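Input (APA family basic amino acid/polyamine antiporter):
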Amino acid sequence: MAFWNRRRSIDAMTAPHSGPALKKTLGWPHLMALGVGAIVGTGILTLIGVGAGLAGPAVMVSFAMAGLVCACAALAYAELSTMMPTAGSAYTYSYAVLGELIAWIVGWSLILEYSLVVSAVAVGWAGYATPFLHGIGIDLPLALTAGPHAGGIINLPAVFIIGVVTGLLLLGTRESATVNVVLVLIKIAALAVFVFIALPMFDASHFQPFMPNGFGSPQLPFMEQITGHPAVAQTGVMAAAAIIFFAFYGFDAISTAAEETKKPERDLAIGIVGSMLVCTALYLLVAAAAIGARPVSEFASSTEPLSLILRELGSPWAAQVVAGAAVIALPTVLLAFLFGQSRIFLGMARDGLLPRRLAHVSVRGVPAVVTVFTAVVVAVLAGLLPLDELASLANAGTLCAFAAVGVCLMVLRVRDPGRKRMFRAPLWWLVGTITIVGCLLFFFSLRPFTQTAFFIWNGIGLVIYLAWSAWNSRLAKGEEAEG
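Output:
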């Protein structure tokens, strides 16, 4: 079989192997917490302001659109992850269904996604940590709290928190998952405090005009040549949805924990679908309370919009509580995505698409080498780059992975309908279609710079694949029968 179409066998993939083993220590409560911890973070605590600035009060529609696409993607993930409960997530599913070349592109895009999510969340955490420290009498100089784009030298708080979370992950999966559960509860409690204070101040006039910047349209590069007019939609519901999409994904990190789950056939579906349902309801409630409490223009440009709203409502103590909870609990997102990134690396290294020494697992059952390597890379990005650019580019990688999962769901239902499925996505043809079409629309609603950067990243990836990975994979060397 040609190298671009080599596929791994699902049966071989799920069979016991003699390589480095990850410990099965996680149950569905840990997975639910991992998903909620990954999803509820910078997206609602910080990017709600960015989204509101793009769409106005219609950011509610943006949240609903992003939530719908992610819900369909979550159903697809739930079906595939229970069929193939191994580390690797969308990369692994693509390898078994779509072939090695597509799997490489998806894996390379996931590396982009997870790395930049960690960096973006670290920057968002620093945006809450700096004012929180100021509130307790600790002032850090601008040079150490902002990157070069904002007149500083390096965002030291962002670098610091990445180091702390990396140390926690190196302790072991079970230990870090237990800490994550506690931090997730703190984060949800903080959002409940916000809603409790903001909702009674609800003013329906803040929703008028509802859609001041229009619905917007995808930024399709070829439209400029057809119409003679620039096809750039920098604002509107679609532009906001493409950014707010960042606020919803994270459940895919659950699928990377498949190999460490005690009962993957049951717990993965509960974790993925359950965390999406909880977070969608929470997001819509928080967004409605925020817009109803204060006009969008007052918090759209803030790095800590929820705390700002509470201060404007005359509740500085609650603002400090939310900021403090963000400081304490936002690292759950870092933990989930650093966790997922190391498992993506592990899967690709096991398959020989990356150097196999990266697949080394420590005595504590942790892929320590890739965890530390990833931490160093994302710390540099977080220390130097702004939040919106990081979030936007991370979205591009995620959209690629989600679209691939939608395709895998549909192809596998047609190609192998009789294979045992512990969880079956309802209306699979509709779920797959919404996932694919929604991801494409969101991708072309991102900034042209982001789209270009994504293609450049994957161009670099293809060079690496053709020069090294295609000739060193396990399938290329005949170490495993093809599917």
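Residues 219-233 have pLDDT under 50 and may be disordered.
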